[in-house]
Write a structure and sequence with these properties.
Layout lengths: L2 H15 L2 E4 L5 E4 L4 H54 L29 H7 L7 H10 L8 H16 L3 E2 L1 H4 L7 H6 L14 H7 L2 E4 L5 E4 L5 E2 L24 H24 L3 H9 L3 H50 L3 H10 L6 E2 L18 H21 L1
Parallel strand pairs: 6-7
Antiparallel strand pairs: 1-2, 3-5, 4-5
Helix pairs in contact: 1-8, 2-4, 2-9, 2-11, 9-11, 10-11
């Protein structure tokens, strides 16, 4: 195993085992693992193997549940309205109702496939919420629209961090990485001193693992992270990116418009009131008999499910609202920690300023220009013949040899 492979593997193990980094008196980087790190790694290894399967199963279950739940609103309202209508029309003459077959209620599970959309959340994020249909607004009000940071935040966060490290010559300190990573205000305050200097740097391991960073120790004993893969570029070094590009977006209860939310709320209220009225009516055995002779005997057996559905239609959004509040509080806290880290870089104290100046000594930028190329793959065999290819290869070989002699 090469040193680079060993370093990357060690960083990955340190990340999974929540290890800490420290510097020895001799200036060596020490990875301090917890005593039970083997058990931690083994447990996480099992989770990593089963996570893809669990994720696929949970997504499929969520899709089917959303489809069934949204479509069931129409089914529930229609069932309740039909049952109450039959009870109302037959209440005056129960004796003749036994000879009247009346309307019958049919429902097919295949109706759900009309509303099945396995890419609902992803498509919903790319579409203007004003274009939502009724069923989509029901889905959105009950189940929400998914994590707003699931794709965009991670991509923009790592792209911004990569550009920033590249603009600094492939070198960054823990203080510079902090605005791009995940840490609460309490965690960030615990690992920094009064001058904004990071004193416990284990939170930078995700960046090291993703970009292949290598920790170095400067003359003052501070840790500096060198990312050799970001020290070569085919374009001039970009300017440092703004830190607000990596802030997380807060969750929303629903992206449905106000008229759509009002309509869904009215239908949910009408369904709940209808279920209550029908439940009270079925306390009378005579009404159960009326539904039976009119082909609606299945409604009696469905009542527990209809009652649970009507209640859950109200409970699920309330539970989601409470969960979203907690998630948004954590997001606001992490964003505040990121901005606090960014502000410490804008107004660094003397110690942090010296550390940033010292880190520049490790910066290196290699600009790879088209004019510097000694070989082009599209030039070999340009004439299309075997002899032409051999001549091109011999010419390239001579140029390569001359370049080696000059070095």
């Amino acid at each position: 195993m090469s040193i680079a492979e060993a370093s990357n593997a060690l960083s990955a193990l340190a990340l999974d085992a929540k290890a800490t980094l420290s510097v020895s008196p001799a200036g060596e980087i020490l990875y301090e693992f917890p005593r039970n790190f083997k058990e931690v790694i083994a447990a996480k290894s099992f989770r990593i193997r089963v996570e893809p399967l669990l994720k696929k199963a949970s997504l499929a279950a969520a899709y089917l549940g959303r489809v069934a739940f949204g479509s069931a609103l129409l089914v529930s309202i229609a069932t309740v309205a039909l049952s109450l209508s039959v009870l109302s029309s037959k209440s005056s003459d129960s004796r003749d109702s036994r000879y009247n077959s009346g309307p019958r209620f049919y429902f097919s599970m295949f109706d759900f496939w009309w509303y099945f959309d396995p890419y609902y959340y992803r498509r919903r994020r790319a579409v203007d919420p004003d274009s939502m249909g009724f069923l989509e607004s029901v889905y959105s009000c009950v189940f929400g629209d998914g994590d707003p940071n699931e794709e965009d935040f991670e991509q923009s966060r790592w792209n911004a961090l990569g550009r920033y490290i590249q603009s600094r010559g492939g070198v960054a300190t823990a203080e510079e990485l902090a605005p791009f990573l995940d840490a609460s205000t309490r965690e960030f305050g615990a690992v920094t001193d009064a001058d904004g200097l990071v004193v416990q740097e284990s939170f930078v391991l995700p960046a090291l693992t993703r970009f292949g960073g290598e920790p170095r120790v400067d003359a003052a004993g501070n840790i500096v992270y060198v990312f050799e893969s970001l020290q070569s570029t085919a374009a001039p070094r970009p300017m440092p990116v703004p830190y607000d590009a990596v802030l997380e977006r807060e969750w929303q209860l629903t992206r449905a418009t106000t008229p759509q939310k009002i309509l869904v709320g009215l239908l949910a209220a009408a369904n709940l009131i209808g279920i209550i009225a029908l439940s009270v009516s079925l306390q009378n055995p005579r009404n159960i008999y009326i539904l039976t002779v009119n082909g609606l005997q299945g409604v009696v057996g469905m009542m527990p499910f209809l009652q649970a559905y009507a209640l859950s239609f109200v409970v699920i959004p309330l539970v989601r609202w409470a969960g979203i509040r907690r998630k948004n509080e954590a997001i606001v806290d992490r964003n505040e920690a990121r901005m606090r880290a960014a502000e410490s870089l804008l107004r660094p104290g003397p110690t942090l300023k010296d550390k940033l100046v010292e880190s520049v000594k490790y910066a290196r930028s290699v600009l790879v220009r088209k004019e510097d190329a000694v070989f082009r793959s599209d030039a070999v065999g340009g004439g299309g013949g075997k002899d032409d290819a051999g001549d091109e290869f011999a010419s390239w070989d001579r140029r390569f040899s001359d370049a080696r002699k000059q070095q």
